[in-house]
Amino acid sequence: MARRSKHGPDALKGMIVDAAEAILAADGLDGLTARALAERVACSPGTLYNVFANLDEVVLNVEARLLDRLSARIADARPEARPRDAVLQMAEIYLDFSHEFPRLWSILLEHALPAGQATPDWHRARLSELLGAVEARLVPMFAPGQQTEAALAARVLWAGVHGICSLSVADKLTNVTAQSARVLIRDLVETYLRGIEARRPPLLPGSA
Amino acid sequence: MARRSKHGPDALKGMIVDAAEAILAADGLDGLTARALAERVACSPGTLYNVFANLDEVVLNVEARLLDRLSARIADARPEARPRDAVLQMAEIYLDFSHEFPRLWSILLEHALPAGQATPDWHRARLSELLGAVEARLVPMFAPGQQTEAALAARVLWAGVHGICSLSVADKLTNVTAQSARVLIRDLVETYLRGIEARRPPLLPGSA
DNA sequence: GTCGCGATTTGAACATCGTTCACTGATCCC
DNA sequence: GGGATCAGTGAACGATGTTCAAATCGCGAC
Asked: What is the b/e burial string over B62-90, where b = at least 16 CB atoms within 10 angstroms of the residue's CB?
């Protein structure tokens, strides 16, 4: 029953990740069963373990591909000239993306590896790549000697946007629909950046 | 083998939630096994199901108690006079809390009920209670006719703080330790609120 | 053309999971 | 004292992730 591989080993890997993504998008983490996945790939459960160490590794691969897709979307966007518009554009891409793949997106954020297991480096690298993209767009707003401040602002904005998307996808922000999450994001970016600009003028004697 | 209840039925409920919290804090969601929980409570697995519909309900009760503890901590805090300080105080309580119970906190955010199941109302109510506390502290910053803006700002700040805590606890913010998450939070609150104040002066002709 | 090596896939088997339910026996009411 | 009641039980069920000895066939050697 076993050809010498009817499709290159990498192709099999791809088919498994494809099938896993479809299952995750449709039924969430609980739906991703070794047997269900194997059936969709038309192989036996054991075969999965010839290609991946365990199901978590399959999930990690789905997540990685999702992050790549987001990165690509950001890279494809026509770059906006003004930092404010550039950051806003990124934030909205992020928001749209999280609502386009809500199930997969939640899994990306929620999926915690068992006890000792740490997130693999190649996974963390993709996250900080995104962070770097925000940072790059913010640098023009800061003086040459203020890279530290730019890095800080990038992290604050990224985390803030992420928080809004996260709560919005999970439907945990009272009275905030997917529609109005966009309003929240605009407000966060615009108000926060306005706050940065307002910091430059000389301090008034009144404030500490 | 079964007395007519050796401890009131509510007491049993409490003991189960206690034990569940201990297990969750120590071993995470994966560690919470019906059998492990039963052993800790010194009863049989079946008994758990006389008191709770399933393990998810137990987890929800742990989460609820956690939210209550956070609410109490916020309520106990000596109220700060200036809105800025009050909001900052809340945000730092939130941050400290999430790092004091990192495992439980992650579970609270990550724990997704199976497919159709929606978060129970009593659970959502506790979340929006917290949101209301932020809102109450922000109201003084806005003119009487601007309650909508205050509500918006409350949601943005809450989501932003939540995002920082969430990424920080999950260790997903590159180069951001638990220590420096406090810096991010301060920056978010201060800069965002400065941005709100900066909005009040009449618009300059230059800006769209 | 055929043969056999070895890479590849298989699926039965294992331990463990959440959950159920027929049963037990201590307790209360009469 | 003697049912009736019901909290508590734990064996049993189906499904889970994972393993591994065995089965299978592609392919190079002759």
From this structure: bbbbbbeebeeebeeeeeeeebbebbbbb
